[in-house]
Recover the amino acids of this structure.
């Protein structure tokens, strides 16, 4: 299993943990990942880190599809890949209607069609086999709709790049099948290695559509909270605010992908309660309503030996990359030892 240091997106201030990134690189960690919501963007921090590092791969988890045209994403990622010596990993996500329409001013449209077409256009641009022409439900190149001049022409990228690895962050069954079919990897939010039965049928269906794909050739890049502590219950409390935020407050009451996932995990009643409390402004109560069992199965928390024992479940689930947000030097060292990254680095 490979290790990815997950930095996420900023709060009110943007501060990159440069020393942690450099230490992860020294310990043999495979990648570092940034994100974006409606504040800091995902690419600028990676460009900064690319200049300070030599080997560690640079991933986005995620870049928002509605924030950029396919061509802009292709240009941006090709550029960073070239400047970093071929270290770019392209993680993409649809985001939700609130951000897409409220922040980016774009219609939410047909998410599955948008995802498929976006990836297809990226592949065409990177391949440089011919000038890019594409006419789909969501994207039209050259543009021929209202307001068009009629002067648009198919173009081929000036910059020569490569077919970059594409990871998709998806949650619903249909989009998970699509991810398995068209992408190189999957970034599942709030992944539980004990719930692979929830995901496996959709992954296998997508692999079958693509032909010749399997978990052996596909990278599940799953986020995981790792906390070294002798007090397991106290450690679980540290991850509950993030769960409550997404399960309770991300999206609208009638459309929250994270809440729906918790229901699929078998936590329908707690998921409803968390959302009710969070949307009522009772955040502390919402956090307290997150079951210990739920927080525990999506994390590695406790003494070192407990983490060692529970780590095997992530391996058995087929996770290829573990995305870890904790910058504790003890965690960086322990996970490098557990995965064999440290030995490889030496």
């Amino acid at each position: 299993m490979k290790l990815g240091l997950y930095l996420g997106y900023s709060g009110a201030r943007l501060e990159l943990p440069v020393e942690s990134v450099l230490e992860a690189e020294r310990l043999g960690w495979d990648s570092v990942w940034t994100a974006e919501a409606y504040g800091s963007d995902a690419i600028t921090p990676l460009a900064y880190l690319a200049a300070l590092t030599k080997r560690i791969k640079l991933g986005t988890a995620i870049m928002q599809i509605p924030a950029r045209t396919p061509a802009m994403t292709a240009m941006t990622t090709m550029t960073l890949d070239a400047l970093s010596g071929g270290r770019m990993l392209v993680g993409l996500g649809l985001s939700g209607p609130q951000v897409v329409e409220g922040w980016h001013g774009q219609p939410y449209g047909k998410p599955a069609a948008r995802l498929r077409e976006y990836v297809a256009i990226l592949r065409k641009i990177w391949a440089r086999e011919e000038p890019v022409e594409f006419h789909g439900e969501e994207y039209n190149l050259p543009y021929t709709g209202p307001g068009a001049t009629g002067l648009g022409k198919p173009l081929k990228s000036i910059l020569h790049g490569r077919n970059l690895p594409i990871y998709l962050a998806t949650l619903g069954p249909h989009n998970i099948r699509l991810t398995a079919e068209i992408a190189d990897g999957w970034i599942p939010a709030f992944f539980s290695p004990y719930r692979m039965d929830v995901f496996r049928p959709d992954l296998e269906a997508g692999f079958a559509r693509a032909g010749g794909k399997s978990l052996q050739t596909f990278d599940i890049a799953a986020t995981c909270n790792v906390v070294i502590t002798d007090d397991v219950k106290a450690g679980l409390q540290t991850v509950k605010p993030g769960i409550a935020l997404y399960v309770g407050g991300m999206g609208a009451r009638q459309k929250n992908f994270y809440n729906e996932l918790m229901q699929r995990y078998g936590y329908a009643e707690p998921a409803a309660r968390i959302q009710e409390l969070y949307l009522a402004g009772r955040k502390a109560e919402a956090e307290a309503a997150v079951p210990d069992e739920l927080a525990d199965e999506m994390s590695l928390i406790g003494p070192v030996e407990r983490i060692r024992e529970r780590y095997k479940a992530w391996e058995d689930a087929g996770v290829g990359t573990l995305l870890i947000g904790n910058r504790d030097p003890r965690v960086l060292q322990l996970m490098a030892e557990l995965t064999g990254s440290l030995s490889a680095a030496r």
Summary: The longest strand covers residues 219-228.
